[in-house]
Amino acid sequence: MSVLSMKRVLVAGLKKDRKELLELLQRKGIVQISTEDIAAEAGAEGSVFYQSDESGARTTFEKSAQAATNALSVINNAVKDPNAVSMFSGRHQMSLTDYTTNVKKREKIMEMVGDLNALAKRQSEIQAEIPKLEAQRESLTPWLSYDQDMGFTGTKTTRAFIGTLPNEVPLEEIYKGIDEVAKDITGVDVTIISSSSEQTCIQVVCLNKDAAKVEEALRHMSFARPVVSGSDPKSQDAALMQQIEGLNRQLAENEGRIASYAEHREEIKLMADYFQMRADKYEVIGRLYQTDKIFLLSGYVEERNAKALEDMLESRFDCVVEVKDPSPDEDVPVALRNNGYAAPVEGVVGSYALPGKGEIDPTFIAAIFYYFLFGMMLSDAAYGLIMVVGCAVILNKNKGKIEEGMRKTLTMFMYAGIGTMFWGVMFGSYFGDLPQVVMRTFFGKEIGSLALWVEPAVEPMTVLGFAFIVGIIHIFFGMGASAYTSIKQGKPLDALYDVGFWYLLLIGAIGILLTTDMVGGMFGLNLVLPGAVMTILKVFAAVGAVGIILFGGRDSSNWGLRIGKGLYALYGISSYLSDILSYSRLLALGLATGVISSVFNSMAAMVAAPPVIGPVLFIVIVVVGHTLNLAINALGAYVHTNRLEYVEFFGKFYNGGGKPFTPFTENTKHYKVLD
């Protein structure tokens, strides 16, 4: 309904109360801290005020918060959290008394955090070490039948070569390869330890006097020393296996120790939130102007909360609170307030842009169309009922706990579900044509159409024409909002020039087009208007066109340039035509929902014949198919409804550019402390 009025607030308090006062403001979450208005004066040269550098303390608190968060992840990986905060349930609420009591145990809790993170680090080290040991065992596998030390080089009179040849090589080829290079040697012994398609592991023993020649022959055969060394392979493998078993025992023991901390999970959650709140608080402290005795805090507060804020601070602390109106040129943050019908759409408006200076809040008029457009695109009564019941159950189950943003989103989809139910009834769609298919397949009866108005697949042009009418009304509402904004800003002539003349032109042009054979025939119309009405429409169109030409370029004093700009502005009628055509998506998405539903229903009917398994398969296909169809087309309806609001509607009157009101509050994940 409106953009909330903001007040500037200045607080001068004693430094000894700074901690408690800031924590109170953080819990209340009603003041946006902003010191720009006092920066010039308080920070001027010679001023007694200064800003302290709190970056070190803030970094310390952020590290502590991250350490607690990491410790939580360690516990949650070991033991599932039965009290995890879900996207619907919101943060757990804690009284200030319980909060204060638990925070006093922070040193002990942070010791547990340190232990958990140390255990997690050790777990990671072990988990990285085990694959290395297993890789070493893998490299020993080809050598397990070898009973000598891997460093064996021979005896006093002999020389031994232990290594591998590429690929699988028969024993006779090895002897042949040695003989080709070292023909005059005797007493060479070759033992194949293992062989595979990748390599052949061998031991070659020769006399010391022949060692150089044998080594040369092996080199010609691409002989390579083994990657393993040390004692005999079996002993090494046993030792490695023992190490792996020991590490696995350590893993199990550490997992047990981590699991034992699960009973302290809630305390650790509180520490993550506590240190994050302290980090946020010290970020604010670093922006305050202060002396050795006092501090100055300034910012914005919603006008409706200004008096309560003033009374609260002055009753609890020795401080002075000054509330005043912002200056006219001040970039005031924006907060919206709407009734229960429109408030759920605030998130949609905020995703586009918040109102800029002098602009109206478009939420209510956007909401008027939002649920209608969404419903017409999804247009299935059963899907709508699922959305309504699902959102209502979640909202009721988590009443009082769900976060405000999620509450508005669920409420928006619940209202959109009501719109979907309405259009489903109008189009006769209940899981598509499922009632007709069930009656035909299992009872052998035809029940015909259930539509209260039309079926889009049977009369698409009727629905398309209605979609264009909706689009025209939607666009005209946007133009009306533009006129209202101009009048509110004291520019009534701008409303006439930029909106009034366009109303005349568009109403006249549309009325005339509907009487033509081309446009009227497209929608099955045979519209014949009385001559007087046609004359009025032509006058409207002519006056509108002339007005746009004369005043569309009124910012130019040169009449030639002014008329040129006016003609260019008149060319903008083509953009209105494309905007209206965009509303054909109302038919397209509605048809998509119905057609896909019918396809799944037909697929289910094809397998429904067998007496027992048939109905089961029918139900499975229907449930799976319609679940997918609901998910995909609900997403499509959401995206395209936003698109129509953002482009065709907001584009006519709304620029945005406002900065959101972001109060200093508890930016926590797990707990919300109540004062």
Task: Kindly describe this structure.
By secondary structure, this protein is of the alpha+beta class. It has four domains: 2-104 and 263-324, no CATH class; 151-225, 2-Layer Sandwich (Alpha-Beta Plaits), CATH 3.30.70; 336-432 and 588-654, no CATH class; 459-583, no CATH class. The protein has helices spanning 18-28, 36-42, 55-78, 96-103, 106-140, 171-181, 211-220, 233-260, 265-285, 303-316, 346-352, 363-378, 381-397, 404-427, 434-442, 460-488, 492-514, 517-522, 531-551, 559-570, 573-582, 585-606, 613-649, and strands at 2-3, 6-14, 31-33, 92-95, 158-166, 189-195, 199-207, 289-290, 294-302, 319-324, 336-337, 671-674. Strand 8 (289-290) and strand 9 (294-302) form a beta hairpin.
Whole-number mean pLDDT: 92
Radius of gyration equals 40 Å
Percent range for helical residues?
Answer: 55-70%
Most strands sheet: 5 strands, antiparallel
- How many domains make up the coordinates? 4
